[in-house]
Amino acid sequence: MAEREQIKKPAKEREDVEVDDAPVTTERGEKLKAELDELLDEIDDVLETNAEEFVKSYVQKGGE
Amino acid sequence: MAIKKICGVETEYGIVLRGAADSNPIAASSMLINAYVNEMVRARGGESVSSKVGWDFEDESPGNDARGIQAAGAMAPEVETHLVNAVLTNGARYYVDHAHPELSTPECADARSVVVYDRAAEEILKQSMEAARRLLPGGQEIVVYKNNSDRKGNSYGCHENYLMDRHVPFGRIVVHAMAHFITRQVFTGAGKVGTEVAGMTAEQIPFQLSQRADFFEEEVGLETTLKRPIVNTRDEPHSDAQKYRRLHVIVGDANLSEVSTFLKVGTTALVLAMVEDDFLTRELVFNTPVWALRQVSYDLTLTEPLELVDGSSITALEVQWELYDRARKYADAFGLECVGESTGQEVLRRWEAVLTGLETDPGSLASQLDWVAKYRLIEGYRERHGLRWDDARLAAMDLQYHDLRPERSLAARVGLERLTTDEEVREAITEPPTDTRAYFRGKCLQRWADDVVAANWDSLVFDVGQDPLRRVPMMEPTRGTAAQVGTLLAECSTSAELLERLGS
After folding, report:
1. Backbone angles phi, psi at B457, to 5 degrees
2. Beta pairing class for B54-55 and B452-456
3. How far is A30 from chain B (nearest CA, A)?
4. Partners of residue A20 in chain B, C-beta under 8 Å
């Protein structure tokens, strides 16, 4: 496994990063979640009405 | 030292004609592009874009293989010369390819410029949809999707191109490019609900990082439509073939996120610069590259060990950390002139931040990476409504993420971070980059479209009313910039004068 030891993150990196075990409890996480909830509240107005038909009819000829 | 990494992307878009009983995608694609080009011509009094500027196929040779062989049974891509083809004043090429509209950005000097022109391409497609809507009967519209598959096994690409030094052994490129392509999906993936591999189910693969990983079957090869290879060997430099190679990358996803596009192009340009300067000392050779590509795409935990031929294993993130680490040292040792100094530094900064985020909390990157943004949205919807992963509503959301209509696009609603401004994107719709040969092409089309009878990546052909036609070769992608020819172009009032001054 010697070669695995070459894979070191830069030292400053490891000092700076605090691993957050529960990201959703952070302020940023709360904000993200609130934004997502808001988006999900409104999204039905934007979504294709007949999902099944839409997915079925979306057929492309192969390209590159 | 590594040569300037001139780069660009060519994107094939999904296309649907709505409200019509049956639709022919080639006809729809042609109509879409013609509608746009004709409106541009009319809007500028017929002077800016010439509908008669055709693409010049004389130097197209997509069957040339970088390995110097013609593999038995290899299917060289066909050049379809009869389809719509336009060259735009920003230096881009807009054309019908295999039943899809395709737009190739002009040659760009760095990754940031590619992001600007990629966004401009989206705007061009949006304007094209509007232009087509005005021509179609009521109730019909053409809708364009910036994605890579129809969820039924048909895929279309978003290809990248990078200028490389011809003298670099192709085998060295293959080894390091392969390692990067397999593992960069952790930030380049556009995300996909389910899988299109025959015999695999949504239960096995509810969601994956990449749109494209399902479609690759070979390690190295020439094809782009069948048995797609991770490293493509098309040897068609569109420049001085004695000096240059154009690495044609077909493995990437089309990205809506500017950060994803920036990192996709920026990290790849850096890796290729390091290959050119032989700075990557450790060869990471995968046991089963095609399977490794899928393993990375199918692994949302980002922890799957990938087997190397030496018997050890490594994760995608470890490979990316190692490449990042080398790139940081490379920058310190040589500077980043070849990828643009400030752009290169920004790539390094964001590369590190994204790898850190992926390691600690991928969800925190929802405003930066397509696959994370898409996953959060779809998983949120799934939880809210208690849906199974194989529910059609989730597949529909996946497709709609890529819908380019502003009123329908889900990507436009998830709060993706911008690197560009509206103003620079607007300008890039009609103005070429100033720092590559695309400047010369774009400006000539702006000024003398009526005299340009054919354009190509590496030449322009003028008809100035006297036989024979005059071809201006542009074999150097870095020549023809505003700094080099801006004054000359400004001083010429006619194309004949330009040709005389150029001595061609």
Report:
1. -60, -40
2. parallel
3. 11
4. 360-361
Catalytic hit among B22, B56, B59, B97: B97
Q: Is A11 on the interface with B (CB under 8 A)?
A: no
Smallest CA–CA separation between B480 and chain A, in Å?
30
Exposed / middle / buried, residue B278 (Cβ in 10 Å: 0-12, 13-18, 19+): exposed
**B381: Cα separation from own chain's centroid:** 30
pTM of the model: 0.92
DSSP state, B213?
G
Segment B100-153, tens digit of pLDDT: 999 999 999 999 999 999 999 999 999 999 999 999 999 999 999 999 999 999
Whether B240 is a known active-site residue: answer: no
Q: How far apart are CA B310 and CA B459, in angstroms?
A: 47
Joined tokens for residue B320 = 């990316």
In sequence order, the 6+-apart residues with CB closer than 8 A to the CB of B308 are B284, B285, B286, B287, B314
Gap between the Cα atoms of B193 and B81, Å rounded: 36
Give CA separation, B185 vs B178, B191, B261, B264, B437, in Å.
12, 10, 12, 9, 31
State how far the alpha carbon of A35 is from the alpha carbons of A4, A40, B259, B410, in Å.
40, 9, 20, 14
Are the beta carbons of B250 and A1 separated by less than 8 Å?
A: no
Question: Backbone dihedral region of B395: left (phi > 0), alpha (psi from -120 to 50 degrees) or beta?
Answer: alpha
Residue with tokens 């040589």: B334
pLDDT of residue B67: 79
Tokens describing residue B452: 């340009």
Q: Do B322 and A7 touch (CB under 8 A)?
A: yes
Residue B349 structure tokens: 């900064």
d(CA A13, CA B352): 9
| Chain centroid offset of residue A27 CA | 18
> Which has more confidence, B77 or B314?
B314
| B215, B221 Cβ separation under 8 angstroms | no
> Considering CB atoms only, which of B157, B312, B328 is closest to A4?
B312
d(CA B69, CA B90): 36
DSSP class of residue B68 equals S
> B169: cis peptide before it, omega within 30°?
no
* Separation in Å, CA of A37 to nearest CA in chain B: 8
